[in-house]
Structure formats: C-alpha cells, structure tokens
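Limitations

Structures in this collection are predictions, not experimental determinations, and the ligand pose is part of the prediction. Treat each record accordingly. The example that follows, with phosphoric acid mono(formamide)ester as the small molecule, is included so readers can see exactly what is and is not provided: the inputs are given verbatim, and the output is the predicted complex.
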Amino acid sequence: MAVGSFAGSIADSHMAVRNYIVPTDLSLDDLRSIFALTDEIIKDCQKFQDVCKSKVMASLFFEPSTRTKFSFDAAMYRLGGNVIGFADPNTTSQAKGESLADTTRIISGYADLITVRSPYEGAAKHMSMYSSVPIINAGDGGHEHPTQTLTDLMAIRHYKQTLDGHVIGICGDLKFGRTIHSLISALSRYPNNKFVFISPPELQLPDYVAHNIDQSMILRQTDSLINEIGNVDILYMSRVQKERFVSEAEYLRLRDYYILNAEKMKRAKKDMVVMHPLPRLNEISAEVDSDERAIYFEQARYGMYVRMALIMNLLDLG
Ligand code: CP
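Predicted complex:
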C-alpha cells in the first residue's frame, strides 16, 4: 500500500512538471510575470531569502560554465535553497556508462529541479522525458540556451525600455551560437522586431532557426559588420564556438573574422547597445568596454536575478 502511494505520487508529480528547454516553453504571460518578479527581487533580494528553504537544485554541468552555473547556484542559495552537483562529471556513474535517462530518473528523486548543461543537442529534452521534476536547459550543444535569453531580454527591457520594435544585428557564429538561436526565437515573438544576420558564409544561421520565424522579420543576411553597424539598435556580438568545430584550422581561420573596436563604434547610432552573452575573446576589443553603449557586463548581472525568478516560477513559488 505504502509502495503504491509512493509510485502514485511520482506519477502525479511527473504529470504536473513544467520544464524550460526552449524559449517557447514559457508563454508571453509567463515572461511578463518572471520579468516583474525579477524587478521585485532586484529591488529587495533579501525579501526572497526563504522562498526555497528545504528545496534542492541539482546542478549538472557536463560542459564548462562561469556565468550560467554560478548564477544558477547563487540564485538557489539566495532563495534559501541548496545545490547538489559535481565539479567533474567523471566522478558520477556516467563514467561507468550509466545512461542519461537512468541518471535523470535517480537524481529527480533527490532534487526539486535540475539544471543541465550538455555538449549534446537535445540532452535537456531527453532528460525531461525521464524526470519527475522540472528540467532547465542551461545550454545543449549548439542548439539552445534559453536562460541566457531571459538575461538578454531583461537587459534589452532595461536599456531599450521595450522588447519590440528594434532592429537587432546578430554578429559572429550564428551556426553554433546557442544563445543566438534562443534569442532569435524569443525576440521574434514580439512585434516589429527586425533582424540583420551578420556572419561569415560558413557560420550562417541554421535553417531550423531561420525558417522558424516570420520571414518578414529578416532584413538581411550579410558578412559585413562595417556596413550594418550604423543600421542597428542592438548589436549582439558572439564568440566563434571553438568547441563545436571539427577542424582546428577552420576555427583559427574564422575566429577573428569580426573584431568590434572603437573605430567601428564611431559608425554606430548614439543609442545603440552592444550585447554579448560572454565569454568574450577577440571579437570585442577591450577599448570598447568603456563605451557607454557596451552593456555586456551589466547584461550578465541580470542572470542571477532572473534565474531566481525562473526557479520560483517553475516551482510555483511566485
Ligand atoms: N553566457 C554563458 O552561457 O556563459 P557561461 O558559458 O560562462 O555559462
């Protein structure tokens, strides 16, 4: 009888689980609530210090991370919860060959939600099929990174006041840049946004992203940053994703294709903003950091607060 109840409670909780795997897993209403809650948290973070008391987040990062991992962990601690995880995936039974499905089944019995970063596209979605608690995609290969998008949208909302009506230049590695894929998906849901895709021919946006948005939102696809920098309201720079390349020589050939510097910034609008999900390598010169239009470090600061709001939303605590 007791075993039956236990099994029943797992099945019931599985049915009610809400995941965040791709940007469209949150409705526009959800997003409005999360952004409003983030504003409240920023105003008085301490007010939320016990919201997740006794809750546990499993933090499974199978790829390196500074911003996403630290901000998620800090978010859970600031909500009064706890975090379990590993510094090295080789210390888990994945190293003995346990499947991701079985690992997920087990960990979802110990934690109230799971954040996962994986080198494999679709890993978070796969895990969501075996988890009894919410799965948050903290980056799956070159596919999606929807919580970076929450950070990006908060920054745009703050610095440009609105999420609609912008010309957004997206520059760099559009092929493998998962933050870019998620950002395009998210911004295409708001009216009157237009995109200029700026990349080398080898690193153009995949069709599965480009074809998924209203085609009238795509102004141009080009390889020229210098010709476009004066036309955009938001310039979203990105790193060439070394870890996704098969050929090191090809990476070395493409990695410095774009270098945004003070000279190029002279051509940009006075109220244009430069964003970057970070880490930044050579694609933005350090001399740009002191330009008031460079908001990438402030952008990253939203990460912890908006992830606090996301955790509360998925756990129905907000
Ligand atoms: N923007 C981002 O995902 O950074 P990390 O890889 O450091 O988490």
